């Protein structure tokens, strides 16, 4: 089963990728979601796991489905074992 550290890292990488693909800085995403850039940075580095509504707001702004993040994390995990 996937562990929390791996999940946080995978989730963060995917959020960072989506943010960069949209051409947004941490500050811009922070303004659009009412979150601090530092907090978003911690999520992207995998040192913080967002609560469900926080994740929803990030995904909504980035144009991705939250379930995609979970599916990708599981896929990455299975590729490593």
Number of helices: 5
Number of strands: 0
Low-confidence stretches: none
The helix/strand class is: mainly alpha
What is the beta-strand fraction?
Answer: under 5%
Shape: globular
CATH class: Mainly Alpha
Major beta-sheet overview: none
CATH architect. name: Orthogonal Bundle
Mean pLDDT: 96
**Distance N to C terminus:** 10 Å
Descriptive notes:
The protein has one domain: 434 Repressor (Amino-terminal Domain), CATH 1.10.260. It contains five helices and no strands. The chain starts with a helix and ends with a helix. The model has no long low-confidence stretch (mean pLDDT 96).
Give descriptors for this structure.
434 Repressor (Amino-terminal Domain); 5 helices; single chain; 0% strand; mainly alpha; 81 residues
Give a brief rundown of this model:
This protein is mostly helical and 81 residues long.
List the helices and strands and how they pair.
Elements lengths: L3 H18 L4 H8 L3 H9 L6 H11 L3 H15 L1
